[in-house]
Design brief:
The structure is a single chain. With about 230 residues, the chain is mostly helical. It has a domain of about 80 residues. The protein has five helices and five strands; from the N terminus they run αβββαββααα. The strands form two sheets. It has a three-stranded antiparallel beta sheet, covered by helices on one side. A two-stranded antiparallel ribbon has the order 4-5. The chain is rod-shaped, with a radius of gyration of 57 Å.
Length: about 230
Amino acid sequence: MRALPCFACGVILLAASASEGQYGNANFHWGYNTPYGGWGWGYSGPIGTTPAESYARGMADLTRARGEAYQAAARGAIDYEAARQTYIQNQKLWQQTMDERRRMGLAERNAYYEQKRASRDRYLQNRSRATTETLSASQYDPETGRISWPAGVADSAFEEDRQAVEQLLQMRAHTSANSMNAADIAQHCQNMLATMKSLITTIPAPDYIEARKFLEGLMAETQQGPA
């Protein structure tokens, strides 16, 4: 075979050297020994048949990467919103629980204090009944309704209430209106007690004490029911 001139060999080697390199996303390799001997060629990565195809492949990869990034960001936003909504719901449930506990505690305290007040009122009522002196027959006769007023309420300032009580006691003695007029009798007795307090400086102390005991005894006795 006829040997090539040195110039021709140099051109072939230069072309081979220029052809070895990256074309698009592909790496071409020329003129290396294979494990089986001789010469061979190889490449790595995606390639395009033309520069335009390689460019299109690169743009497709970029678009896909952007889409994946947007998709990841959207998933992250959804997860964040779900976590935020869960947090808000948990806060609402916690607030509702605390409000319910406060309401229950307030109801329990009110019930406790109401029970204490009722117990105190019963104690005071029983104590008042135990310490109130009953009227003698000469002071008040429930069979006839006759009453003898003490000196402390003999003043004309008590006349209206005295007459009202006398009429109610007469009605009480001759009818079965005991439970009906007991409250009215008590009201007129309270009126006289209030008048006594306003005239405390003009009523002698013994008369004041006697009249107060008399009125309290009359209220207690008329509250007990039928004579």
